[in-house]
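[Automated response] Your request has been received and processed.

Submitted sequence:
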Amino acid sequence: MELRQLKYFIRVAECLNFSEAAKESCISQSTLSQQIKQLEQELGSELFLRNSRTVALTEAGMELLPYARATIKDADACIERIRDLKDILTGTMNIGVTYSFSPILTETIFSFIKKYPKVKLNIFYKPMSELMDMLRDRKVDFVLAFKPSAPMEGIESHILFQNYLAAIVSSTHSLATEKKVSLEQISQYGIALPSKGLQARNMLDKVLERYKFNLKARIELNDPDILLNLVRQSNLVTVLAEASIHNERGVKAVPIDIPDNEMVGCVHTLEDSYRKHSMLEFIKMLCQSVAVRERINSWL
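Generated structure:
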């Protein structure tokens, strides 16, 4: 039995489609089928029920799947530990980032790649729910996002900094000189909001529901960069985490005057998972960055 055979088995079990699994594994379908057949012969049991239209796991396949996943997890951890023991800091680090965290991350990325040029960074910008699924599937090493409203099973959230929900306006907007703004004040202007599912929007919707208030959006966008450009060039108001405009020119974040207006920036990791030295070093550099240090206890 080979690790690659277990990886192929897991991929087919997840896809339940040999053609799709072969594409994701970057091998031909005939090679994939041959490897699965060899694994079945070695185990003395069929792992999949196949016909011309469907693929399903047999009882033996369902029994093998959690053990196969655990074996691959342990093998990957072994490789990472040996690499780190050599203190070379090579390899790849996969980071999940919500859109609100993008400006906070830039400084650390440049510092890290300069100090550790042999480490490849793969950075995925997605909504939090998708990133958490990637974390559970071990497709990312950690996720940078605001703390969810409720604990997530199997995931640890480590606090980086405090932040808040803000009305984002152009620097020439009439609200730009205010120390705080109310929901009523915001409602007097044209509103452009982040799409549902993005963290700032999730928090805003909970606030609006709690206070039974309605903000009628003229525009909804899932791209904060475009949202900020619209605000910068118009009299529109949007609502984002204050951290979203770090190093952005021509815009101003005005705190929204509501109780418990706090968004906590966190590093999210799997419970009891191995943490690469490169990951720990990246997070250490992030904690020392200007963007994070400016926002530690910023609510006090």
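Summary generated for your ticket: The CA atoms of residues 141 and 275 lie 8 Å apart. The first strand starts at residue 48 and ends at 50.
If you did not submit this request, please reply to this message.
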